[in-house]
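From the pipeline queue, job 12 of 40. The input is one protein chain; the requested action is below.

Action: predict structure.
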Amino acid sequence: MLTAEAHVETDRPSRYLRQLCKHFANQGRHLGHRPRAHGGSSSDSNGDDTEARTESHTSTETRPDQIHVDWTDTDGTVQLPWGTCTLQAVPGELTLRAQSPDEEGLRRLQDLVTTHIHRFSGRDPLRVDWQRSQAAT
């Protein structure tokens, strides 16, 4: 199992832990609804962008039943088909631990979590610096 960790300094680690976990839990409910592409495709009489729906459906799409999220104010776990991210909030720091059986899954998980932390931290983006670590298989 490949593992990477990030120790994110913040005055509100519990807030970010809850926000990330709630977001991933809610995303699972909406994954069945594929977003419409803008531009370059035809619409039917109902305004449905049928071509975009067909093109956006790929084998890497995640179903809601493939996402499992559990959290408290201090600990969280996000399980996705390609890996798991555990979160721990301690005073002054949010610790993230991403695990996946392969490089692509680990990179995808790290990018996903990092993107969301940057989005949630707004005008004062938090620094997420992933470091590879050794994990027991």
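Job complete. The domain at 2-31+67-133 is CATH 3.30.310.50 (TATA-Binding Protein).
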